[in-house]
Amino acid sequence: MLIHLSLLSFLLASASGRGLIPPSSPITLPLRVLPRDANAPPTVSGITPVKISSDRQTYFAVLQTGAISFRVALDTASADLWVVGSTCSSSSCAAVPRYPLAFDSSTFEAVNNNATVFQASYADGTVASGFVAKESVRLANVTLPGQAFAIVTDSNVTMLDDVSGILGLGFPRLSSISRSVADSMPFFPSLAQQGILDYPLFGLSLTNDESGSLTLGAIDPTIVTNVSQIGWNKVVEFSPVGSESNASSYLHWATPLSGFSVNGKHISPLPTYPKVTANASLALFDIGFSGIFGPYQDVDRLFDQINGARLVDDGQWAIPCDTVVPLSFTFGQQTYTLEPTDYLIGPASGNPEIVWHGRGPCLPVQTVSIGNLVVPSSGRFTQSSAMGSMQKSPHSSDFML
Ligand SMILES: *[C@@H]1O[C@H](CO)[C@@H](O)[C@H](O)[C@H]1NC(C)=O
Ligand SMILES: *[C@@H]1O[C@H](CO)[C@@H](O)[C@H](O)[C@H]1NC(C)=O
Ligand SMILES: *[C@@H]1O[C@H](CO)[C@@H](O)[C@H](O)[C@H]1NC(C)=O
Ligand SMILES: *[C@@H]1O[C@H](CO)[C@@H](O)[C@H](O)[C@H]1NC(C)=O
Ligand SMILES: *[C@@H]1O[C@H](CO)[C@@H](O)[C@H](O)[C@H]1NC(C)=O
Ligand SMILES: *[C@@H]1O[C@H](CO)[C@@H](O)[C@H](O)[C@H]1NC(C)=O
């Protein structure tokens, strides 16, 4: 009987034809939750601290590969996990704890005799390379055996505060390891797809100090005190979508930005590619990179509203340090407000090009013209991500009132 039913659904699926499967068809979901049987182990969730780096550019958490703990920077715009290995002798690697290749970890599994190459490059021009292997990875009390990751043997990625690598929390389509190792998945999608977690979601609370958190399979109840007030936004799909490809159409944690305002004055964003995005402006959430980036036509109108704002460099603005106006960004129905303490880096004293008249200049978190992406990633925000959804709040006091 079961066989007949599945055959029937197979035939129906074929008969419906490629073009008839809507883009929102369940086959495009990135995370497939497997049905659980009665004998399945109980699901889990975990919470672990997230701290801001001393240069205030990244957030990091602690995970274990095998028996060894490492600090890893969190990044929502990449999807691979890597740590530097003991054979990496560049000045960048030498400054941080390294995965000891001679240690002979009992949970280490070689992939392709250590000959599968890993290469990553980042927006600031730095690069890391090494080889792919598998290890037992434990984060927030959640353990995943045999996780494909990379051991970096050469790198000039800036490493501070004993942070030894990067944990990518992006969608599988961004993973280079998944492409080079058969049947492998990035850490979080793998946890979700195997049904290990209570819920297929992660939560991030990012603060200006050491008080942030990363939750797996759960939301931090000290941050989210009323789950009904979480704003759910659709994550936009990137071509190819639906039946054109076997890959998920989810690529970036990107969602439509409905508007922004300066000191209460609303500004409608002007999309750079209105025909492609159906007149919507998209915002990409990248916690691995500091700054707010937007297209020139929007950033220019934003700073028009701030007294004394000046374009000081190619696409970069500075504003008076005594600026008090709040900036708001609206996603879906919810508006999130950044106060100057959230969006100002500090005095631009090191830059002789910036000459001011009477008032001290301040650099806002880098706000430059680039592509069609606005990336708010400064200050305090919390993001819960589940099956293509995201929520953000800049202040603990604004959050879930
Ligand atoms: C792969 O690397 C591990 C860790 O350094 C090492 O123990 C193992 O011998 C290597 N395997 C090969 C085939 O080089
Ligand atoms: C890092 O290395 C790459 C490749 O060699 C090079 O192009 C880049 O300029 C380097 N970046 C830094 C900051 O050293
Ligand atoms: C994680 O596991 C350790 C050791 O088993 C335990 O002491 C700790 O309370 C656990 N933490 C959480 C958040 O479950
Ligand atoms: C939680 O939020 C919902 C939606 O705003 C509201 O109706 C409800 O009263 C709130 N619950 C509590 C306990 O504050
Ligand atoms: C999708 O997967 C099937 C079966 O693995 C394969 O035959 C087909 O070529 C794939 N299609 C694309 C567009 O990758
Ligand atoms: C975008 O907006 C313009 C002006 O309101 C309208 O003419 C056009 O049809 C819209 N395009 C799309 C794809 O929604």
List the helices and strands and how they pair.
Layout: H1 2-16, E1 46-52, E2 59-65, E3 68-75, E4 81-84, H2 91-94, E5 109-110, E6 117-121, E7 127-139, E8 142-155, E9 163-168, H3 176-180, H4 187-193, E10 201-206, E11 212-216, E12 254-257, E13 259-262, E14 265-267, E15 281-284, E16 292-294, H5 296-304, E17 310-313, E18 316-320, E19 327-331, E20 334-338, H6 340-343, E21 344-347, E22 361-364, E23 367-369, E24 373-374, E25 381-386
One 2-acetamido-2-deoxy-beta-D-glucopyranose (NAG) is lined by residues 226, 228-229.
Can you give a write-up of this model?
By secondary structure, this protein is mainly β. It folds into two domains: 46-220, Acid Proteases (Cathepsin D, subunit A, domain 1, Beta Barrel), CATH 2.40.70; 228-386, Beta Barrel (Cathepsin D, subunit A, domain 1), CATH 2.40.70. It is 11% helix and 33% strand. The chain has six helices and 25 strands. The protein has helices at residues 2-16, 91-94, 176-180, 187-193, 296-304, 340-343; strands at 46-52, 59-65, 68-75, 81-84, 109-110, 117-121, 127-139, 142-155, 163-168, 201-206, 212-216, 254-257, 259-262, 265-267, 281-284, 292-294, 310-313, 316-320, 327-331, 334-338, 344-347, 361-364, 367-369, 373-374, 381-386. The strands form five sheets. A six-stranded mixed β-barrel has the order 2-3-9-4-8-7. A four-stranded antiparallel sheet has the order 14-13-19-20. A four-stranded antiparallel sheet has the order 17-18-22-21. The protein is globular, with a radius of gyration of 22 Å. The termini are far apart. Bound molecules: 2-acetamido-2-deoxy-beta-D-glucopyranose (NAG) (6 copies).
